[in-house]
Design brief:
Layout: H1 2-16, H2 18-50, H3 52-55, H4 59-75, E1 77-81, H5 88-100, E2 114-118, E3 133-136, E4 139-143, H6 144-152, H7 160-175, H8 182-203, H9 218-231, H10 233-239, H11 241-251, H12 255-266
Parallel strand pairs: 1-2, 2-4
Antiparallel strand pairs: 3-4
Helix pairs in contact: 2-4, 2-5, 4-5, 5-7, 7-9, 8-11, 9-10, 10-11
The protein binds zinc ion.
Length: 267
């Protein structure tokens, strides 16, 4: 019995000890990579057909993007409400999260295991207006029709997938603190130095590209900034250059450059 207790204590210390858990994690990722390679073409066919951001990456980045999408997909349990599940649904939802966190080290949004895909706008709690998506302790919720409109760019500056993943990223770093990204957490203070004054001026009535909804509270300001950063980077960079720069440093990526480079190739 004593031996068993000692064994359990030593094992838990080893597991909790960071280098050991990182080593186990690396081993897991390595093993997953083999199964990913067998599915890479399938993932590529779905992601390249739907995610513009992905098509602007170079080949090496595309493989990193797909592998992260695969790991994210595998780590989550998807639930489908009033909608017929398709193979593309969990892959595209995972891809939205990977796009947001592509410049970060942590990208699994650990804490959130359940993702709910709902047919279209829905009512939640006591709110009178319908929801396109939300995040709470029970999971990440997305309406599929709005999600598709977002990735197709049908509604200017709107991308509900990126918006909700923005909330989820803030949750795991600041609320549940279950998957803290060192860089993101440290840099968020600098982001807020630039963002807070813009948010406060919007609360007093100032108008800008982010739109009125971003003025509701600081959480929404952040999630809307994420959407506009990816959906309209050149205009955001032009209109709110300091905010754009702070977002770009925080997320360690610059969609405006990727966009400009892609346009040059296309021209
Ligand atoms: Zn929101």
């Amino acid at each position: 019995m004593e031996i068993l207790i000692i064994f359990l204590v030593v094992t838990s210390i080893l597991i909790l000890h960071n280098p050991v858990s990182e080593w186990i994690n690396r081993l897991y990722v390595k093993r997953q990579y083999k199964s990913f390679l067998a599915q890479e073409t399938f993932y590529h066919s779905i992601v390249s057909k739907n995610i513009r951001y992905y098509n602007r990456l170079n080949l090496e980045e595309q493989r990193k993007f797909l592998f992260r999408t695969y790991l994210f997909h595998k780590a989550k349990k998807f639930h489908y409400i009033e909608v017929t599940p398709t193979a593309e649904m969990p892959i595209l939802v995972s891809a939205a999260s990977v796009q947001l966190t592509f410049g970060l080290d942590k990208y699994l949004l650990n804490y959130f295991r359940d993702i709910y895909v709902i047919k279209d706008d829905y009512h939640y709690g006591f709110y009178s207006r319908p929801f396109m998506g939300h995040v709470d302790l029970s999971g990440i919720y997305l309406s599929w029709d709005n999600f598709l409109k977002g990735i197709k760019g049908e509604q200017p500056n709107c991308n509900v997938g990126l918006h909700e993943m923005g909330h989820a990223l803030a949750w795991v770093n600041f609320i549940t603190q279950t998957e803290e990204d060192k860089h993101f957490k440290g840099e968020f203070k600098n982001f807020s130095k630039v963002a807070r004054p813009i948010f406060e001026s919007m609360q007093k009535g100032a108008k800008n590209i982010l739109g009125d909804y971003a003025a509701s509270n600081y959480h929404e300001f952040w999630a809307v900034s994420v959407e506009v950063f990816f959906e309209n980077p050149i205009r955001l960079r032009h209109e709110l250059p300091e905010l754009y720069k702070a977002m770009s440093t925080l997320l360690r990526q610059d969609p405006s450059v990727i966009l400009t480079a892609a346009n040059k190739i296309a021209a």
